[in-house]
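Troubleshooting log. The previous structure file for this entry was overwritten by mistake, so regenerating from the original sequence record. Sequence copied from the archived sheet and checked twice against the printout by T.R.
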Amino acid sequence: MASKSLTAGKNQVTFRSFGVDLAGDLYLPEAFDATKVYKAIVGASPFPQVKDQIPATYGPEMAARGFVYLGFDYLGMGDSPALPGEFKQSRYMFRLIENTWDAVSFLGTLPFVGEIYGLGVCQGGSIIASAAVTDHRIKKIAMVSGMMAADAFQWTNRDQVNQQIAAANASKQKMYEGGEPDYVTPIGLNDEQSREDFVAAMAGINPMAGETYDYYGRDGVKGPMAVPNFTNMHIGDQGMQSLFSIGEAYADKIVQPSLTIYSKAAWTAVCSTEFVSKLTNEHEELAFDEFSHVDFYYKPEAVKASTDAVAEFFNK
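Regenerated output below.
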């Protein structure tokens, strides 16, 4: 890529991963100068997001703080293709890690990029933590509302988990035999539901239903009406991979300095606190009482608090 074609703000880019071109947005600081060297961030988004959601929020914020930020659509998601013979909406954990490694490689080819850091939100936290275990090109990592310790969150009800696995297994067999995609609603939310219907359906199951809908729902701030290439529908065998938590299992192997930001009141707080308890690296922890898990996705006060903290941490 010719650096002279890049300008301050958002730039559409592509980079190779699994032999195909993934679609990305490269956010550059104001008064960007290709002859200078900048600290760069590879971003990782929540499940099941595309680059027009969290990356489109955090990218401009981190660029405004002087960083180069790369947000991208994972293999089979958003504007990135699936592999030949495979289906869209196939966000598989192991591939997310490898896509992230390739994103780091891409940033490493840019002459104006110096140190590279990782910033993940929700599932993106697990992706960044996992990728960093063996990719020491990533010099520091930060995780916001991160789902790193997924075992404490996803495996508590074994009967429920085994039902999820059985459904994923059946979906995989169906797709293998029929050659057609089998799309489901992994978080129980489709693209047509009203907020009232979804919250009622999740009563006693998901205490985050209201804030989840406000972001992902049909009428949400970053739902399918607001982000045309996003859908809440996902490939049916997703559970066979999303139930793995590599970052948690290898937390004590992470050597890079890390920052974990989360809400004390969030249902998901245990995913951060359990992860932190396993770390042996140089580590900082920032917990808030006033924000929820999803607040960090888009609410101005929460986003400012997290991005200010991340910028300070990466600049140390």
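The chain has one domain: 3-155+243-314. Archived copy saved in two places this time.
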